[in-house]
Write the structure tokens for this entry.
Amino acid sequence: VYDRIVRLPADTDFSTYMADINSFRNTVFPSGAPNYTLLNIGENVFRIDTIFKGIPNIYPFGKDAIIYESFHPYLITKHDGKYYLRFRDVFDAVGGVEVQEFVYDEDAQQFNAVNHPEYTITGANPNYFFGEWIGENKVWQYSRNKAISASMDVLFAALISDLSALKYTFQNLQIAKSGESVSMDFTFRSGTKTGKAS
């Protein structure tokens, strides 16, 4: 049982509220995306595995997920126009630091601890993410029906618009690594024919 109940305005429509919460959670922690969520507490970094399931395993970054496993259920709520992530129990980090509740910073696209804003829940550093995730013979692909950040959405909207002006239909963007080469290709359609550009 969570140790705090979030009070909502009396006129809140619960089904609308839950749809909003679920949409936010699925956008921020999509189940189909690579999982590189990190909890940053000072000099200490923790990996958060399978956060989209609601009971993530949080363990020191670079350590074994089984030996150091520590499961932390959480709840996402919204009040005063902000989204909050609250762990059921206080998370005890190294050095006696305790964190439990985080508020989402839309501009930074990260969660900041309510009692220590410098402690965050973020995605991995992009260089590490792409270096680790796009390993030998792995592929990362974006298609139009996937949820993405607002800044990436603007870039893809421009790409789709430019292709449409040329009478092409955008299908997907793919980044792949083979040996030392990394390729970025996008696939498009013109009439019944499909093409690819790098």
In short: DSSP finds three helices and twelve strands in the chain. The CA atoms of residues 29 and 52 lie 5 Å apart. The chain has a mean pLDDT of 81.
